[in-house]
Amino acid sequence: MRVDNVSDPALKQTSEETLMAQYEHVRTQTLRLTESFSAEDMMLQSMPDASPAKWHLAHTTWFFETFLLQPHLAGYRSFDETYQYLFNSYYETVGERHPRPQRGLLSRPPLKEVLEYRSYVDNAMKQLLNSSGVDTNIEAAVTIGLHHEMQHQELLQTDIKHALSLNSYALRLDTNKAVTSVSSHAPQNPEFIPFKGGLSFIGTDAESSFAYDCEQPRHQVFIPEFSLCERLVTNAEWLEFMEDDGYKRPKLWLSDGWATAQQEGWQAPLYWYYQDNQWLTVTAQKREPLDLNAPVCHISYYEADAFARWKGCRLPTEFEWEHAAQSEELSGHFLESGNSLPQPVNNSARGLKQLFGDAWEWTQSPFIPYPGFTTPEGALAEYNGKFMANQWVLRGGSCATAEQQMRSTYRNFFYAHQRWQFTSLRLAK
Amino acid sequence: MRVDNVSDPALKQTSEETLMAQYEHVRTQTLRLTESFSAEDMMLQSMPDASPAKWHLAHTTWFFETFLLQPHLAGYRSFDETYQYLFNSYYETVGERHPRPQRGLLSRPPLKEVLEYRSYVDNAMKQLLNSSGVDTNIEAAVTIGLHHEMQHQELLQTDIKHALSLNSYALRLDTNKAVTSVSSHAPQNPEFIPFKGGLSFIGTDAESSFAYDCEQPRHQVFIPEFSLCERLVTNAEWLEFMEDDGYKRPKLWLSDGWATAQQEGWQAPLYWYYQDNQWLTVTAQKREPLDLNAPVCHISYYEADAFARWKGCRLPTEFEWEHAAQSEELSGHFLESGNSLPQPVNNSARGLKQLFGDAWEWTQSPFIPYPGFTTPEGALAEYNGKFMANQWVLRGGSCATAEQQMRSTYRNFFYAHQRWQFTSLRLAK
Amino acid sequence: MRVDNVSDPALKQTSEETLMAQYEHVRTQTLRLTESFSAEDMMLQSMPDASPAKWHLAHTTWFFETFLLQPHLAGYRSFDETYQYLFNSYYETVGERHPRPQRGLLSRPPLKEVLEYRSYVDNAMKQLLNSSGVDTNIEAAVTIGLHHEMQHQELLQTDIKHALSLNSYALRLDTNKAVTSVSSHAPQNPEFIPFKGGLSFIGTDAESSFAYDCEQPRHQVFIPEFSLCERLVTNAEWLEFMEDDGYKRPKLWLSDGWATAQQEGWQAPLYWYYQDNQWLTVTAQKREPLDLNAPVCHISYYEADAFARWKGCRLPTEFEWEHAAQSEELSGHFLESGNSLPQPVNNSARGLKQLFGDAWEWTQSPFIPYPGFTTPEGALAEYNGKFMANQWVLRGGSCATAEQQMRSTYRNFFYAHQRWQFTSLRLAK
Amino acid sequence: MRVDNVSDPALKQTSEETLMAQYEHVRTQTLRLTESFSAEDMMLQSMPDASPAKWHLAHTTWFFETFLLQPHLAGYRSFDETYQYLFNSYYETVGERHPRPQRGLLSRPPLKEVLEYRSYVDNAMKQLLNSSGVDTNIEAAVTIGLHHEMQHQELLQTDIKHALSLNSYALRLDTNKAVTSVSSHAPQNPEFIPFKGGLSFIGTDAESSFAYDCEQPRHQVFIPEFSLCERLVTNAEWLEFMEDDGYKRPKLWLSDGWATAQQEGWQAPLYWYYQDNQWLTVTAQKREPLDLNAPVCHISYYEADAFARWKGCRLPTEFEWEHAAQSEELSGHFLESGNSLPQPVNNSARGLKQLFGDAWEWTQSPFIPYPGFTTPEGALAEYNGKFMANQWVLRGGSCATAEQQMRSTYRNFFYAHQRWQFTSLRLAK
Q1: Using 50, 70 and 90 to split pLDDT, how confident is the model at A96?
Q2: To the nearest 5 percent, what fractions of chain B are helix, strand and coil?
């Protein structure tokens, strides 16, 4: 997901005090996510899609400096002029940038200086938020900056996990965790929850709370009758797919998916390793036995689609998902729950489970504009729609998503081949 | 468009006599398209997306041999066993294939032998169609084979045009054609036709006439109010876009589109050449001055999208297009009209023009399954949905499309970067 | 080998009559080599290193038109102005060129027209050679043109062989040829012929006969004592290497060679196919059982080097080879012998065998300039030394080399990874 | 240069005490080279050719652990078993390795732990060297280990320089250094020193001092008369070449060189930047004005060759260079002189200057085996000759080379396109 798609939203009604509290909460949460990593870890960039943790720390700070402090805080002086070049992500109107695939070469500025940068900007932001000049435009921009930073919190986690997974030294096996065998954890037969369909309102006009522009405007969609599986697909079910030659039968796959799978040599989800007669997976800290009852994770759209076909089902559309989610409570295993992997479903609960948190759900809906979508003006809103091609919508959030970031209208999006996010699937019929 | 996506349609009610006449008509039309080309021309393959004309001649014939003659004509003996390997396109269940990017290396069998193959199969097909055993299954398969061949007729034309365009010797300037200057052909201000929207039926159940599976089933879609431009965008309008730096302003482009345009060095539509103070384009036979009043052609989805944004408009959805086309007469400049390029609009006509024929219209709809889409059984229907990712729907047909092939529910599809088909755009609001 | 490295040689003393006879001989021989191929075959280009046979026919003709007729035949009118662009190979001073990797797209001009071009130029050349104005400069240029054409004769054969080998239809198994089994053809233990070494004269000053500039000047080289194997390595010996895991042991290989072998998946020489319990190879006309007593052929420098190391030997230097060849008769299986593959050695002969003809011998000498090498002036001599990096010298000629082209000082050169020429090896100690 | 080509040399006669002193000297020198870099800097890997400084620190230590301590120190226990996998470079017999292009992903082990590893191994080495069991085999292996480490000292410097050069933040302009203008520093006309040539002994038998296997055996070469320029080519002369369109004239270049220069967009040596009307270059610490009197540096073989051709000269052979160097004193600006760039020549000196130190000199000699070259046995000597293809010999050492490492027979080697070493040229005739 490109994390800088921002809207010109109607403002969330908060006093400056509350906004200040939110600011401190989000900024502190970001730093907390880096506590277990060294300066060396935080330089890692393992692919152009990903960025170093240090870069995330600086870029989210650059956002407040560029869009809040420089235009709105009188007398503000930049921490370092060259940061403009180093930590811009893709705002063309803001100027030239350090090449994205070379962010891992930024040994300088050192982490220590980036942390000073954060403090420096945080102090100035407090000054700004305490000043008398805070109007709704400023409030809106701060709110966007916080949502922007929450998105980067998730990327920070998935990016460093990817990089560390390539270092066998870093992720040693956690032998304390008990081995999970397949036989003892046969998954139950999940239920499918039926929905009537009909004309449904999708999206939001964001009048009373924050939403990105791509979630807007609220509009009607006709949805035929459908049903959704009560829970996400589990690792145990995915093993059955593998054992039934799911990765070897072209007829189960989209043409582009089959080509990608052959080229990349996919034979299991990302981060699955077979060793000493068991399947292992990794967190950013260690290698551990796979929990067969947990949702499958780190799969591409192509794999999700092939699995659904193998099951005689399909993926839900984003409209079906949102329609179903509208009446559900927004709760689940988010970042705040402290889990580094999606958790097994609570079997005793009824109805739709795991809709929010745990893992993103691939939908069969391409990421395209809603009818009436318009691009906001200004640098902050630059290129709002420019990612609306060749990517697919994911819904619901994951264990790496901040809870405040989530809502039933939220549209995340990635390319069909990407696997390093916490991506899973729910079956539909 | 992948030309072998076929359905298990309800059959078109025709007597054997009629089917025979159709068979002869289509097969003859294919050969007619190759009349001006040599055996050497018909070997050309300029990119993996394209195939040699000789290969198209053989592959369409292989289709009848494999799916009609071998299973249904008692005592039929294959023309040459090795053709199975050479001329299969992508039917995995039918066996191994000659590598697609190396079709241009098939100097053998020679064209002469491929033409004998066509005669041989045509004779056998006549025998089959005259036999008493022709049932509705056979009729359905023949109908599919003919629609399949009509699709290859279009590809044959676009593929050889692409290859010849890379040989400066082949396409010399036609100096008989008068030079068209920009100033004398200023385009008129086109009208936008308004539509009310609402719930609309899209697609077909193909009960009384042929349709591919991807056009099925007929289903309801909610379409908001919209309006469509009365005609296609012209070359003159495209020149304005170019002169206004349309190819140089990233803010007009999708992110993937901008990256592609930079990498490929796009500065004009495919086949545009600037020489001696005028713009030229090519047909498969010659180089000639660009007709500024004709529809722009050979553009990618990315260019169409950027142009629409530049105009303050957007591309239509496939549902808007189909909704508008349902009440229009199916007529236009198709293959049978003998034009090698799309023609200028008839200004005296009223209402929507150029809906059918002339050039395919990019829509903003990704090619995904309709609700309730199902994959038919059997080899003929293999992989019906397997192209439903990362491609975009085009509507309406072109000057290289056989008229019988077209209908308002027809969904063509290509990747967003592809330009060698006769692709154009119509603005929507 | 790049075939246009030409020198400003002292002239071979021939009357115009003889030069005319040579001209006719060489030009006729070129056409004879194409007799068994169709116009379609002669368009094939299977890789950028290779060119279509039709292109070779035209390019060698273009050479005479450009360097003889245009400057020296009064009133000469070019056959077609555009040929200048199409059939120039790499003479930068002569102008722009059609892109080399797209020579296979030249369906036009048709073969028929290229043959007319040859006749047209041949007639004009006869006129020139019969005129009174033929001086030694012209004679020198004609001689170069003929040697140039002989080099293209060899490439024409190896290029079309490569292309046809990729078409399983083209090269069907020749079942008339008896199967050769390994056991019945165990190779004898070859003898090594000792040489004393010392200061030796290498190269030529080309005063009395034609030689390329890279063979000049004659100079002294100190050669330590050495010995050469009496014959080339055989296919039977190569099989032993394969059976002893020669392609699987990195310690036998150069580092670059091992990387190339892994990347390309080499497990045998080019054109070796294992089928029905026997090894087959191909000619340009058919697939046939491998003759185990024949020299191994179509191997890269890397493979030759690994084999020699496996045998506890090494490849000869080009100086050792030339030193040994100076006292040998220039005879062997050349193009004129009509063999499409190298032939088994004549066991009854004594001393060094197969030095000339049959197959080129990789030496361990990089292709670099001799001391005192100078670049001649003028377009014909353009870039004489520009290929003197990263390539290796081969010596002795092959079954596809015209006999008149060969001499003991002749230096052929290719990159270490290239295998499509008739390349073999002789062991040295 | 691959730094692990080692021989089975006759041993340098030293007491254990001396060897211990050498060991301490070399190991300390390595650490000194890293003093100005942070742990983050020492993780940088900017291309597969280069390695992180931390990796160099660990790999050179691994060498002593693997080839000295494990086989020879009774009771030695490895510091960490996984280091075997992480810090092996390319010794196939020693086992699997971490992928070379991903050495930059080794955030763990942290630098701190790698430094502990060095101490741990150093302590064990002292124990070994003080023990009574030190025989000549052990002494030989220690000597190799030290030469190996000196080679890595040079790579450590060039690798980190390359990585930091890609970070504009890291290398800010040093404004203290005065601007050097072209006009005020016109280079003198250098003299060419003549040599008679004849039979000369090249290489060494390494009986009394250390030498790599590729420098052996001593053998005779016939060298024609030649002359060498008294000094290296200067930056001022290189500017003349650039101003005379040296980078734009294909006729000056080798064919492979021209293709590389076009593809890479070369228009000046590596690390030359034009800014504010002056040319700058970089050290590993800063950006500073180019010293026009200093030797040109960071050029490829292709550029060196083109420059020489432009001057009407050529590069020397490695035999000419060694012949000339045999009678010269081994002194110059080496690593110990503390210069981060090659220094201007001392104009008052007579005869050949800058032969040793300052910058490596490309020769026109490919890196191939000397006559009689043999591969030593054992893992330490694994693959001694495996780099003898496609690379070129450089002679003389640079400002990043430890003085003890250099001698007149030393053969360094790199690919013709590589520029990140301290590479320069001396003209020959």
Answers
A1: confident
A2: 35, 15, 50
